[in-house]
Amino acid sequence: ADIISTVEFNHSGELLATGDKGGRVVIFQQEQENKTQSHSRGEYNVYSTFQSHEPEFDYLKSLEIEEKINKIRWLPQKNAAQFLLSTNDKTIKLWKISERDKRPEGYNLKEEDGRYRDPTTVTTLRVPVFRPMDLMVEASPRRIFANAHTYHINSISINSDYETYLSADDLRINLWHLEITDRSFNIVDIKPANMEELTEVITAAEFHPNSCSTFVYSSSKGTIRLCDMRASALCDRHSKLFEEPEDPSNRSFFSEIISSISDVKFSHSGRYMMTRDYLSVKIWDLNMENRPVETYQVHEYLRSKLCSLYENDCIFDKFECCWNGLDRQVEFFSVFHGSIVMTGSYNNFFRMFDRNSKRDVTLEASRENNKPRTVLKPRKVCGSGKRKKDEISVDSLDFNKKILHTAWHPKENIIAVATTNNLYIFQDKMN
Amino acid sequence: MFVRGLKRKCFDGEEDIEGTLAGIKAIPSYNLQRQSLLDMSLVKLQLCHMLVEPNLCRSVLIANTVRQIQEEMTQDGTWQMINTQSTGQASLDRLVSTDILCRSSREQAEEKLVPNYGTFNKDFEGDQGQDSSETMSTASSVQAPRNLQGSVWEMENPQENKGNFQKSLDQIFETLENKSPNSVEDLFSEVDNSYYDLDTMLTGMMSNTKMGHCDGLETFSSPTSTASNSNCKSDLNELDHIVEILVES
């Protein structure tokens, strides 16, 4: 129940939300920067915890519906309260998180503890006033979007109009209005008439960051389709199809499985999108459909181990990926918007790729190997052959320690990395 | 044949070395591995019977892999049809039992199943490239992938399928019985020879495949009692459903 299943910064980066397998959402808040201590930015502390989803039972199919939170997406802040969407396999909920730091005191008809006074004992009247109290953070569900998905929801994405959002399951994508819970529009449906003919499923979907009628969805066959909602109500015909031709020299029985895309993310500009498949991260230019513009190998040393990874089911692990958010120059990495991409791997390793310098680094999220406030040491994995000092052999990797979820602060060089049960927050070293 | 053996890179280190050393050696090794991959895939698909809905993406990918293997085997001519005299089961249209795969639809459950994919392994070791069976294999291979997928992800089946679970597992055993002893041993190397026992087989599988949701399977106590359990279960579920409706209104 403690297994972290999603991690997401809000738009300002002040809040960091995590969802877990037990249906809980935990939100961390960044401390206000301490002006005297310029060495570190504010730390993240627990701000709010609430139970978002409960396990349910589908009576019609005799199946449990897991309460695991698959995705969290923040809405941009419009007033004092914060809003986020969280989803499990079947139901999406809109949560309002608000602060209360004052409470009314001095009622005429009620005692402070809430008991009602006998009206005959009231001799004078007073006006209740607000008095400060200890900060209380309350989370309340404002909308519940249910009963629209037969299959398991894998993605939610808020449109740039901030009024609508999409939810995608294995075979369908629905469009919702944030205010309306009893209706949703189906915009993509790839369910074949005969389920026996099913060979491809939807694995991820996202709205374009700027164009409110454009979205993409990825498939288990390694394709990405870009659709325009202005073209037709049901976007079964894509506007663009992104697919890289298969490399015949690498062909194996596992080719299709490892080509399945586990995550798709637009760059902030919307010009590029990034996809993650089992072994690599690819950057696509939206103007070029026939191949990616860049490919980064995450853990190529696993290519010769695919059979074992198939046997222990690790080959089906769905890794996510993310872009950096910053716009500044920093030593070692040139840190402009969309110039670094990050993704997770096994053995609690995660990888970063600098698109400009083409440098990459492997880091480890573990308490044993990294003391707090020390610089992370780069790691290196070697093949089954000769092992140099400090290198880790591929055979000694722990495949139960996987980093599937990572997130990058939108404005600063702070990253959140989730191992199975723990959340790590790293920041770059400031001089 | 040699070229194909070199091109394929799906297997781990030591098998590769074995393959490149002697071209002739590569082919049987490759075919045995392909066979075990097929077996593994079918077992993975079998273990979809659980309390939580199986992952559709995973099922689709595994089924596609199985189909790929079958297509290749068909081209190789190693995909043998069942020998009708040995088991007495007639239909040549079904290469693989659809009921073996998870959540078979009611209609498919009622049809005759032909658990025969075990026999061709034996046949292959005898001879390669039987032309006589090739036409038959090609004709039925078109059927096979479809049937294979047919029941893998019938998500919209009514809950009677829970009652079919026991029947399906019986059929799994039948199929496995037909296999040659060697491959069965390979498959169940972690399980003792009482693989006819439902519990042992399932727990053996689970440790092998490390599937997180298999805990639900352990609630099925024994083959004999499962049938009645599932009937009770469906009755109880109906009752719950009715109560829920009443409560909500």
TrEMBL record, chain A:
Any one Gene Ontology molecular-function term assigned to this protein's record: protein phosphatase regulator activity
SMART domains: WD40 (SM00320)
GO CC terms, sorted: protein phosphatase type 2A complex
Keywords in alphabetical order: Repeat, WD repeat
PROSITE patterns assigned to the protein according to its UniProt record, in alphabetical order: PR55_1 (PS01024), PR55_2 (PS01025)
SUPFAM superfamilies associated with the record: WD40 repeat-like
Domain of life: Eukaryota
Annotated family: Belongs to the phosphatase 2A regulatory subunit B family.
Name listed for the protein in its UniProt record: Serine/threonine-protein phosphatase 2A 55 kDa regulatory subunit B
Organism: Furnarius figulus
UniProtKB/TrEMBL annotation, chain B:
Name of the protein in question: CDCA4 protein
Chain intervals with Polar residues compositional bias: 129-148
Ranges of residues in domain SERTA: 30-77
Region (Disordered): 118-148
InterPro entries: E2F-SERTA_domain_protein, SERTA_dom
GO terms under cellular component: nucleus
